[in-house]
Write a structure and sequence with these properties.
471 residues; mainly beta; 3 helices; globular
């Protein structure tokens, strides 16, 4: 039997846009925009929404007192405010039906309709809020751009604050309602951060030139609030662990089973001598076990040019902080292929505490306890999502490039003004706190990006040759 299907939908957007740009003596610049959209994918009474923007820049080095100076030839201050409206992708006013069926995530088969000559339908799991309004994102930014000593040193700084209100989410509903999700305005999120770019030209000579730049970024994302009665929303992953947005918490965050701890935060162990997991960590409640976002990110770029014909460029990236649930490391421990499972005979004492507050002194393993390591990795730790949380700091030689300019006497007869050959390689070297894997290898995109790895495809090192010709 062969089944075929298709989806078809129509969505229309009508937009009106205006832009105003003013400048005064190439020193003061004002730009303002306004846009009004009318969309078909929102409730009839909420289809029209307006969002403006405005930016102001002041090049203060154009003032007569500063013009033409050699120490600070260019300086600019800037500020901007912008709003962006975003409508729902789809909106369906009335409950609708979809092709029925039954299946399970744990099975490779299920019952799908049409089944033979029988066609079945069931109500959709999604219910749409009749009062749904477009999402609105407000961004405020201030910054400065400074150049010193004939542009040998450049410094650019930005601070931004972004608040997204009326975010459109699928809020979980009780099964008794007959639906799974209510598509509604369920969230308010705030992001703020700093970005600093430093550009320098430390060496500028006839036969050698060195350009160096560093880009520093620090950003914090926080869920301000969710829909009334909703504490958190799962955005991706599994029943456990998963990526969540939780009211009052940073975003994105990883949730799963935690170690059972005492009031001082120390891991507690099983003290029942008749239990297979005697002396091993106990499972606690489901809760937050990791933060995905890093503390900061820095990128270094160096370009060395020799005799104006040969150059070497390198980019080094440094990410500090951030965490990931590594399902790949979990499976390696479960199947005994990880380095940490190599020794399966030496007796061990798990690093934890007893209920009375004394350090764990229960010894497991050895000739008389041959299943201890198997119990530890297959049962005690495998069932504990928190035990598979790893920091994802890294330093990476992101890119290395070599370029050679072809002598003009070889290319001029063909009418070529300039030609060069280049060799480029990416993902060259990596130093990381995550064992066995590249922390940039993650499962999924969007909300899942960087927070979870489960047998994901590994990162690859690439090599390329290029020819650049200018006529």
């Amino acid at each position: 039997m062969q089944n075929s299907g298709y989806n078809m939908y129509d969505r229309r957007t009508a937009g009106f846009f205006g832009n105003l740009g003013l400048d005064y003596r190439d020193m003061l610049f004002l730009n303002a925009t306004g846009r009004q959209d009318i969309v078909s994918s929102m409730p009839r009474d909420n289809r029209t929404f307006f969002y403006p923007s405005a930016s102001l820049a002041f090049v203060f080095t154009e003032l007569d007192a500063l013009a033409g100076n050699n120490v600070l030839p260019f300086g600019k201050l800037r500020a901007s405010y912008a709003e962006v409206g975003q409508a729902a992708q789809t909106y369906i006013a009335d409950p609708y039906f979809v092709t029925g069926g039954a299946s399970s995530g744990f099975l490779s088969f299920g019952i799908d309709y049409p089944f033979g000559d029988i066609t079945g339908y069931k109500p959709s799991r999604s219910l749409y809020d009749p009062n749904l309004v477009p999402q609105n994102t407000q961004t405020f930014e201030i910054g400065a751009d400074l150049r010193f000593f004939d542009n040998r040193i450049g410094l650019d700084y930005s601070y931004f604050n972004t608040v997204a209100t009326d975010q459109i989410f699928g809020v979980p509903l009780a099964g008794s309602t007959g639906y799974g999700f209510l598509i509604t305005n369920a969230g308010k999120m705030e992001s703020n951060g700093h970005e600093i770019v430093l550009q320098t030209n430390p060496v500028r000579a006839a036969n050698f030139n060195w350009d160096f730049s560093v880009n520093f970024t620090q950003m914090t994302n926080r869920v301000v609030e969710l829909a009334e009665g909703v504490e958190s929303i799962s955005l991706g992953g599994y029943v456990t662990p998963n990526i969540r947005a939780s009211a009052g918490d940073t975003y994105p965050a990883i949730y799963g089973e935690q170690f059972l701890r005492d009031d001082e935060g120390r891991i507690l162990v099983n003290e029942n001598p008749d239990h297979d997991l005697y002396g091993m960590p106990l499972v606690g409640e489901f809760g937050k076990i990791g933060d995905v976002s890093p503390d900061f990110y820095v990128s270094f770029n160096n370009t060395f040019t020799f005799f104006r014909n040969f150059s070497i460029a390198a980019q080094v990236d440094w990410k500090s902080g951030g965490q990931m649930y590594s399902g790949s490391n979990r499976l390696m421990g479960l199947y005994g292929s990880a380095k940490i499972t190599e020794d399966r005979e030496t007796p061990f004492i798990y690093d934890g505490y007893k209920a009375d507050g004394t350090p764990n002194d229960i010894e497991r393993g050895g000739p008389d306890d041959p299943l201890a390591y198997q119990d530890l990795y297959e049962w005690a730790l495998d069932q504990m999502a928190e035990s598979h949380i790893y920091e994802t700091s890294f330093v990476k030689l992101r890119q290395l490039a070599f370029s050679v300019r072809i002598p003009q006497r070889f290319v001029a007869p063909a009418g070529i003004q300039r030609a060069s050959l280049s060799f480029i390689t990416r993902n060259v070297l990596l130093w990381t706190t995550l064992p066995n894997f590249d922390p940039e290898t993650s499962q999924g995109q969007g909300n899942m990006q960087g927070g979870m790895d489960y047998m994901s495809l590994p990162q690859t090192t690439s090599y390329g040759l290029g020819l650049n010709v200018t006529f």
